[in-house]
Amino acid sequence: MALLVRHWHTKYRLSLFAEIISTRNLFLRNMLEYYNSGVEMIRRDLLTGHWIPYLEHALNLNPCYNEPTNGGEVAANILQNAATGKVYNSEKYSGARRLRDAIVLGFQLQRSAGRDISIPGWYSHAENELGLRPMMPSGERSELHATSANELDIEDFDILHGDLHGLPDTVTFLKSLASLDFNFSSNEKTEKRHLRERLAAAGLFNWEDVIFVSRAPGRLDVMGGIADYSGSLVLQMPIREACHVAVQRSHPSKQRLWKHALARQHEKGEGFRPVVQIVSFGSELSNRAPTFDMDLADFMDGDGPISYEKAHKYFAQDPSQKWAAYVAGTILVLIRELGVQFIDGISILVSSGVPEGKGVSSSAALEVATMSALAAAHGLNISPRDLALLCQKVENHVVGAPCGVMDQMTSACGESNKLLAMVCQPAEVKEQVNIPAHIRFWGIDSGIRHSIGGADYGSVRVGTFMGRQIIKSTTLTLLYQSSTVASSQDCSNGVIHDELDEYDSGLLEKEATLNYLCNLPPHRYEAIYAKILPEEISGQTFMDTHGSHNDPVTTIDPKRTYAIKAPTAHPIYENFHVKAFAALLSATSTDEQLLSLGELLYQSHYSYSKCGLGSDGTDRLVNLVQQMQHRKRNGSDERKGTLFGAKITGGGSGGTVCVLGRNCIQSSEEIIEIQKQYKTATGHLPFIFEGSSPGAGKFGYLKIKRRIHGR
Which residue, of 90, 180, 309, 619, is most buried by count of CB atoms within 10 Å of its CB? Predict the structure, then answer.
């Protein structure tokens, strides 16, 4: 059964009611889901009374149904559109798919007491035949075992703590976890590329003991982006795709070890020692090793933990296992920052549905999910904010990627269907901003792999911090000159100034100790500093003149030339743009509001490009959105475009574009049309991100124990 909670708005009231229908009635389920009007409930939660998360989710829905209300008319339109080939969406909500659903519904309506009608065999394979939208990574698929998915139920586990929150990907993960506790051989229908990770995962857990499961989503950068490390206000949306991590701690004598790990212990002759063993599903998608293990003693150097620098070198030795730094690195950070002592062995299974290299923070989701599960397994009470800051240390110091903190904060602190408004100084959550019912955000993947550890991102960050240091040096010079030649005019560094009054001196004193560039208003930047900042400067020249750029996570290459002016100006103006965007979200719903919001997105996008963080793919997608917004329609179609703006996201240089549009069916049709046009032009079919889900803090954790059936 499924609980479908629907709500609708009238001029005077909000009405809420629940309707229980069969989960096999896919026609009705998909219609409700497609129009953002339904929340599906897990049967177990329905029967046990766990309704609150679903009701909370339902209250945050933004229904976008503006079609006829006569059921017969709706069905007729669907059939007519499918018959004439007017199919806009290649997914399960397309006319063709809904036609299949309607046929199945017809079969089901023929059922009578004591007699059932078999569902046609072709129906279960229909989704695979469409092939127009990329499938999710294999780690989130339910076909991990030859056993029917219907036989793998969450009833295989006792949930001792936590709630599923109605999240279907969590149910899928638990099913894949349950499927590991089956005997299977290489002769089964398991692809060779999955076999190694499946075999390793099958020997990972003691099924008699408890397992802790966490979930952390990726994020869509709506506004703020790379200005986070300069202290900007940012607006971030947790996406539907998420990473799940299962953790089990075991006494070293009881931990199930892989053969080579056991042999390593025997070779050392020191008895049982705690080991961390990690399996990552979907490893073949990134050409990385599916497993990693190490003795926890390797994190220690005498009586204390090893340095972050030493850990970074340790994980960088083997490129195919560098990914383990994101996971095992959380253990070292907990040791160094909180003094946690890990005396038990740790088994970790990672299954992420957040695509890598698309600029939606797959790494932050992995770090946050891992640390959340470790904290739960070891009884650590860490607030979501503090956990995010610890995870940033993993990425900055163990992985070696100079990211800001907004990714980890969104994954840890975000709420479904809301924008996390945070001032990154260093990580102060202002509020959870409700997305107005008439507005919707999408992410469109450019297919150009994004890496926050790449040279472009790092060099732009170095240039930004150089610019801040030049501004601070300039203010000190101006203050000195104002105190020594207060009655004269002087020319210094290209700035001609008169005697400074008390007000200007006070501002200069503040700017001389500027910690975050975003605390400098745009008008002050234009009035004084824009004139003296160089377009670029060599690393050696900067160090000779100013010394350090005072960024703890990047270093200056003396032989490299760095852009200065554009990377410095970007966060100053971006902070202003984000504040304006946040204010406009609460304005009256008008076309002018949407146009203004869209314009702010466009300005942010082109500012990225000035910094050198653009790409051909993301520029193409933004141009396609503009064309869709302004295109002239043919014939009697007088509809206006319903997409209003787009921008590159995250660290730039590829990845995903955020698109803003009206929350209606036409917008979805236009997104699909852009997807097809991009594929025609580039050969790459973009992944579309839509929907939202709760952050790790809201999800909490699951404490589960395997039910042993007849064994």
Answer: 180
